[in-house]
Amino acid sequence: MKRFNLPDPGEGLVEAEIITWHVKPGDEVKVNDVLVEIETSKSLVELPSPWAGRVTELLVPEGETVEVGTPIIEIDDGSGEAAPSKGDADESGQQAGDDESADAGEKRVPVLVGYGASAGRTRRRARKRPADPEAAEVTREASRAMDTSEPVGFHSDTAQVLDSHRRPSHPRGRLPSPGQASSSTTSMPTAPQHVRAKPPVRKLAKDLGVDLASITPSGAGGIVTRDDVHAAAQGSSGAQGTAEAPAAAPRRAASLGGEEVRVPIKGVRKHTAAAMVASAFTAPHVTEWVEVDVTAGMELLARLRERREFRDIKLSPTVLVARAVCLAAQATPEVNASWDEDAQEIVLHPHVNLGIAAATPRGLVVPNIKGAETLGLKELAEELAELVTTARAGRTQPADMSGGTMTITNIGVFDVDGGTPILNPGEAMIVATGRIMRRPWVVGSGADERIEARDVMTLSCSFDHRLVDGEQGSRFLARVAALLCDPALAMI
Description:
Dihydrolipoamide Transferase; Chloramphenicol Acetyltransferase; 3 domains; alpha+beta; 4-stranded antiparallel beta sheet
């Protein structure tokens, strides 16, 4: 009998919430079968089983937040050894860390990172190497998973300049599928591993008592959608209409004068709130903005979409902004910096790890593209699409959200013109892009001066005034605006 403790997610995280159990007492599991889906303040992670055997007990219910090292499941592996209590596990773990040679006859079971940690203890202890090679591989895999505007007549040759300094795109690291999960939880049916559904959809299915395995998916790539779940709950494959009510009822009731609704502050939202408060009261923010005629940039994107190499790639204005930000940062390196309080130094980063703020059902996450300045438009577009898709599916790993040096947030998708964005902690610059609207605009000069309908966008940026002074911040913003207004400037 063995107990599996909540692993250490790294990144300074000390707790996680049990989202969905993929097994129930009595289920037979194999090594690498998914046991549970947990949520840290940064990502959703599936934990595989390090042992083969029979599930005897789920020690933590869904929805409960537990600290690292807390036993969460008990598995009978046929060894006949009794599972230690939490206190016993803490004591044995401490003894093993103090002196491995003290008891040569005592064999420690294969564990994941953080196994055996006491409540409140976040410091990792020395561990013995597991004797089982298969379990050791599971340990390593799980540990890695947790660490986790253009004038008329402008030629498309400019794209080659904007695409300069390309490097081959490397796929992001992903945790391989640990295998098919066993049946459902003890309280409500859940999806087996082979059913494709986003975490919010899985939770909705659990709340409505719908077995995802019984649903014929209608989403792209065989993904089960919210409408599919609602239709299954109503017993009709095409039911919609009031089917939206169950998921949206709590928030709507609160806004329409119904009962008071309290939403627990946890997970990503809790982490984001703490980070934003720390940033607002640590870094002296300065915000500047400028209205930009991006007609030429939009025309460039339209021409690129017709080119064969871009036909299967989503080209959005954010891609062009990202490229312009990287080029402007090279001319103004002070904006790609951080403040080292302990060393009393300003750190100028050699690469732009460009964060892209993505709104998800779990809250705002900001994964970043490593070395974005080395990518051309095509590679940036591919990385951006993958980054946003992964974030909205709740699969962004902590490693993809660490190490950012600058950030772009697109508030224009919500039909907002502009704002005063708050810096991500540790960064010196964040750029906000507003919506693009057709507006009357003065073009030309002198005798050729006239008013035309143009694509106009409000571009704003906030910067840490300890690192970036007014001149540097203004030069950076003006450079980004100029590149969006006339991409041909990238050739200069």
